[in-house]
């Protein structure tokens, strides 16, 4: 009997799932409540499956043996609730794709740093001659890679939303970069729900697998005390020397795994800032596990170009440096950005607030920020948090205006930093769109 799959959402994960399901002999129906982007429509027309947009035809969806829902659709959505009442399994694209591959997986999650770590690992693997493909929450969907693929390793960035929909999915190497309050609007504003979601990356791991994590992160440390983990633990730390794992000694990164030792001077790392030292530790630990030559690891870490929209240096104009950190969609990411500023800073901030608390930024803003430009439709929270600290505060609702105001407020030697600490959906399509508009506005100055 032909199995039926209904796919909710016609974005990257939905299209990838459709391609894989079709290849595996499923009868496929794809349904998107919104409009499907033209590039994805093209694919749908080519693969000849049944699909619809701007509606959900429930009687068709309820005929499915399994439903894949895109990560953006919350579990509380009425249609998802009905599916569960009817006991129709609802899984994520990550889970569905994992049913059809035996290729080992490196899975990376965390509130911040996961895109950088994913790209850095992929870079080191490629330089080390290992055949690997990168995707998941960044780049290609996992399902599409499985449908097309022949590779020796998958390197997957995984969001908490993607991990929410797993049952059997298991990475051979799991990385948890850190946990800070984020997306709490999706988790009933309970931090423990969000933490549990992140820890799902290791729930199916066995004693033969590895779990790499930040040992300095208090939220992770607390959860580890409460949660037995089967995988072999490889922590990384800037604060303490470790028996097994990665730590700092005499300004060198040291990675020790079962009597093998790798060292590299922190000054040679391409990426600056304490958080990037941790990102490098996580990637170096993976490289050590995969037995990549030590010299290759060092060279890869030294020549890595970084990730677009993450502390990306755009241009210097009149000796003012413009930095695009549009990917900073939560307070903690912005904390890292402000911490790495070494000059007076004009800070562009704002967007859709996900339950932000700005207190932890106050000392940094006090020390480094000379002016704040609010870029959002509702800036009250930012104005209330920082209005008394910064003399210059301007509200604006367009990137062009924000950049032109920043140009007027910045003096020689200053930095203009776009690090919004918020989601982008009030004024932009996504954080990439926001970052590109920033770069364009800077180039047009």
Automatic annotation (TrEMBL):
The keyword Signal does not apply. Keywords: ATP-binding, Cell cycle, Cell division, Cell shape, Cell wall biogenesis/degradation, Cytoplasm, Ligase, Nucleotide-binding, Peptidoglycan synthesis. Gene3D superfamilies: Mur ligase, C-terminal domain, Mur-like, catalytic domain, NAD(P)-binding Rossmann-like Domain. One of its GO terms (biological process) is cell division. Pathway: Cell wall biogenesis; peptidoglycan biosynthesis. Signal peptide: none annotated. Transmembrane segments: none annotated. It catalyses: UDP-N-acetyl-alpha-D-muramoyl-L-alanine + D-glutamate + ATP = UDP-N-acetyl-alpha-D-muramoyl-L-alanyl-D-glutamate + ADP + phosphate + H(+). Its main location: cytoplasm. One of its GO terms (cellular component) is cytoplasm. Belongs to the MurCDEF family. This is UDP-N-acetylmuramoylalanine--D-glutamate ligase. It comes from Christiangramia fulva. The lineage of its organism: Bacteria, Pseudomonadati, Bacteroidota, Flavobacteriia, Flavobacteriales. The gene is murD.
